[in-house]
C-alpha cells in the first residue's frame, strides 16, 4: 500500500475511534503535553481542514511561534462537536496535503503517535500495523523528524523492536515493542516501562 493510502486509513481509524468516545473520555488528558483527548483530535482535524488562511492568521496571532499556533488551532477546532470532527476526518481522509520538511512520513507518524496519545491514557487497545510502523520508526531516526525527535535523542543508542524486524543504531540497546519504541523516540515517557536494555536510562535522560 502507498503511504498516502496508509494516511487515509489512519484518518478513518481515528474518526471511528472518536465516534466511540464518551464526553468524559474526550475531556481526559492525553499523553500529548497539556492537550485533552479531544484537542488531540482537533489538532489532527486542523492539519487537513483548517485551510491555509486560518493557519496563517493563527500563526501571526501566536507571534510566529509554531507550537503556540498549533495549540490555539487545536483548541479552536476541538470546540466543534466530536461527531463533526469525525465526519471532517472521513471527508478529508484522502486529502493530499503534504507537510513541508517532514512530508508524508511525518503526516503518517503524527497520526500514529497521536492515536496512541489518545488510546494509552484511556486504556484502549489498538494494534498498529507493521508496515506503517516501520515507516514511522525509520522517519524518527532518519534525521529529518523536525518537531518530533531532536537528532541528539537517538544518537549513540541502538533501538531494537521485539515484534517487528527492525533495528537501528549502535551503542547501548533500547529494546521493546515497536509501538513503545516509536512513542519513546517521540518523547513520550509513558512508553519507557515497556522498554528494557542498558540504553533506557540514557534515553530517559534525553526525554523532556
TrEMBL record:
It comes from the Bacteria. GO terms for molecular function: metal ion binding. SUPFAM superfamilies: DinB/YfiT-like putative metalloenzymes. Pfam families: MDMPI_N (PF11716). Residues 8-94 form the Mycothiol-dependent maleylpyruvate isomerase metal-binding domain. This is Uncharacterized protein (TIGR03083 family). It comes from Actinoplanes lobatus. The lineage of its organism: Bacteria, Bacillati, Actinomycetota, Actinomycetes, Micromonosporales.
